[in-house]
Amino acid sequence: MERVLVLNGPNLGRLGVREPEIYGSASMADLQESALAWGSGLGLAVDVRQTDDESELVGWLHEAVDARAHVVLNPAAFTHYSYAVRDAAAQVTTSGLLLVEVHLSNPAAREAFRAHSVVGAVATGTVAGFGFDSYRLALEAVAARLRTTTQP
Ligand code: DQA
Predict the structure, then answer these.
(1) Does domain 2-150 have CATH number 3.40.30.10?
(2) Calpha distance 89→131 (Å, rounded)
(3) Ligand 1 nearest atom to the CA of residue 103, by list position
(4) In terms of pTM, does the model score above 0.90?
(5) Structural domain boundaries of the chain?
(6) I want to staple 102 with a disulfide (CB 3.0 to 4.6 A). Which of 13, 37, 120, 134 is the partner?
(7) 112-126 pLDDT, tens digit each
């Protein structure tokens, strides 16, 4: 079974408490439960993690490369300024693995500083603005891409 690391950056452990009008009332534990269920429906072994620490997130991206795991990544605020996360994300896609950038909100419709993602240019694709469904759509995109690339 193909593995997918669903990696979440800073403040996403506060889901449910943090700005619920933007991020909703469900928690990271709820997201984890949903993502595991979506993954099992799609035949993907999903592992959901969250960290507030840039170096830990970079380490998980290195782990994805070494373990040949695909990635669904919500870099949170790192999206907008972390060249370290971008460079680690680039190693995932340049090694032939999929990396889908996801956002709960639509950053393009918010403050100007959120309009630019330093990660987007090295991602396979981006899904933003659909709440938890951004993750479901990203997992579906990974499964669909894997189906087409494994077909003759
Ligand atoms: C976010 C959007 C980012 O701009 C913000 O810093 C986050 C969450 C999202 O999922 O909508 O922390 O990545």
Answers:
(1) no
(2) 22
(3) 10
(4) yes
(5) 2-150
(6) 134
(7) 999 999 999 999 999
